[in-house]
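Researcher: Next sequence.
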Amino acid sequence: DFPGNVRELENILERALALADGEFIEEADLRLPLGRDYEHLRQYSQAVHQYDLWITYHPEDYRLAEALAWRCESRALGNMDLGQALQDCNRAYGVMNPSWWSSKSRWQPSWIAAVLDMRSVIYLRQGNFGQAAADGSSAIKLQADDAYAFYARGLAELREGLRTQGHADLTVAEKVKPGIDGDFARIGLTP
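Model: Next structure:
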């Protein structure tokens, strides 16, 4: 059940070929681009299903952190299975973040910040506002113009009664990405 038209399917096949390990596309290689497409259509349960299938067939793949991050994102945005979403984010973060034996991550700061953004959303949904604000702050340290981090941190601060800080962060987020309040409202998170 493909959710788009023929041109969109051709684009998925081209992306799958680019991501494939060999010169042939296998069924499992289609799962990541399909998951992204379902997520963009806000069909989060379908996106999670595609990521589940991909992860099952690629447990040792170098793209596992991406798949975990995207599955976390779909669950967080869809407000589904937040405990598992947090586990996915934590696993992705563990792979992406520098460790005791390596002081530099091989992942771009924007990827790590995106995982922290989704953890902020999860913590907001769970009522853990202090941790949501902390992850927002960590994401901002990695990417100073991260509108999602500012907005999530602002929401967390408002919920903790820190009105001045919260409104200041929401204002910064709106300047960086006009309309971000609508993005958050679509997933049920409003000031």
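Model: The chain has a mean pLDDT of 88. Residues 51 and 87 are 14 Å apart (CA to CA).
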